[in-house]
Amino acid sequence: MSLSLQDLTVRRDGCPTVDHVTLEVPAGSFVGLIGPNGAGKTTLMQAALGLIPAEGQSDLTALSPARRARRAAWLPQAREIAWPIPVEALVRLGRRADPDRRADAAAVAEAMAALDVTHLASRRATELSGGELARVLIARLLAQRTPLILADEPVAGLDPSHQFAVMELFARFARQGRTVIASIHDLALAARFCHRLVLMDRGRLVADGRPSEVLTPARLEQVFGVSGAFVPTPAGPVFVTLPPPPGSSVPVPPEP
Ligand SMILES: Nc1ncnc2c1ncn2[C@@H]1O[C@H](COP(=O)(O)OP(=O)(O)OP(=O)(O)O)[C@@H](O)[C@H]1O
């Protein structure tokens, strides 16, 4: 399932927080959406899904809400549950948009196993740790079995082993022809698992390509105010983020 955005713009108080973004994501992609805090990553995904008003076009917004829900699943950044609902029932809520009731049990069980939350099935969602709840909400996302997944910081708050598991799962979905777009602050994870990185800065799309093409020293310094490098390891090249180089134009706060 591909995603096509044409000239997408979101204005808030007259200022564009997403500024004329055009993006084509073919089926079978795992795209990491990166950029500093406030760059517009969440806003772009919300606009793509038709959750907020936007100028320009997203091929998702042309669909009826019911068809859109069967095509795209959304993991919001906020991980809050207001009711003490049992975990399994919460994951099952992901099945609402799919009319195929016979698939419910398998979809829920498979999603819970993939996120290692089967043992939490009867626990109240309001009584989980932050990382456990995050995994349960990703399981709800997977239970929807949509061809397109948009996830806002899906690995934030997960321990390293579960971060790897989720990133590997998304990469596998892409190999199977599904499409995943995820905002990610951990550049090492993004560089390792995503086929393509899309870099946003101040609402604009400023770089788009393979991780090694996007994570260049000049861009890292300009956009994030850091440096970084791909370091060879026995497990392949690993991207390491470093403080800005001496003499960098990035302002360094004075010592207290
Ligand atoms: N509901 C809102 N009303 C007004 N401004 C908003 C709203 N939500 C976000 N913004 C602003 O829009 C800009 C983009 O925010 P957005 O959440 O898309 O950034 P982001 O790249 O996802 O950031 P982060 O990495 O911190 O999650 C920011 O300047 C933010 O302050």
From TrEMBL:
<comment type="function">
    <text>Part of the ABC transporter complex HmuTUV involved in hemin import. Responsible for energy coupling to the transport system.</text>
</comment>
<dbReference type="Pfam" id="PF00005">
    <property type="entry name" value="ABC_tran"/>
</dbReference>
<keyword id="KW-0813">Transport</keyword>
<dbReference type="GO" id="GO:0016887">
    <property type="term" value="F:ATP hydrolysis activity"/>
</dbReference>
<dbReference type="InterPro" id="IPR017871">
    <property type="entry name" value="ABC_transporter-like_CS"/>
</dbReference>
<feature type="domain" description="ABC transporter">
    <location>
        <begin position="3"/>
        <end position="227"/>
    </location>
</feature>
<dbReference type="InterPro" id="IPR003439">
    <property type="entry name" value="ABC_transporter-like_ATP-bd"/>
</dbReference>
<dbReference type="InterPro" id="IPR003593">
    <property type="entry name" value="AAA+_ATPase"/>
</dbReference>
<dbReference type="InterPro" id="IPR027417">
    <property type="entry name" value="P-loop_NTPase"/>
</dbReference>
<keyword id="KW-1278">Translocase</keyword>
<keyword id="KW-0067">ATP-binding</keyword>
<protein>
    <submittedName>
        <fullName>Iron complex transport system ATP-binding protein</fullName>
    </submittedName>
</protein>
<dbReference type="GO" id="GO:0005524">
    <property type="term" value="F:ATP binding"/>
</dbReference>
<keyword id="KW-0547">Nucleotide-binding</keyword>
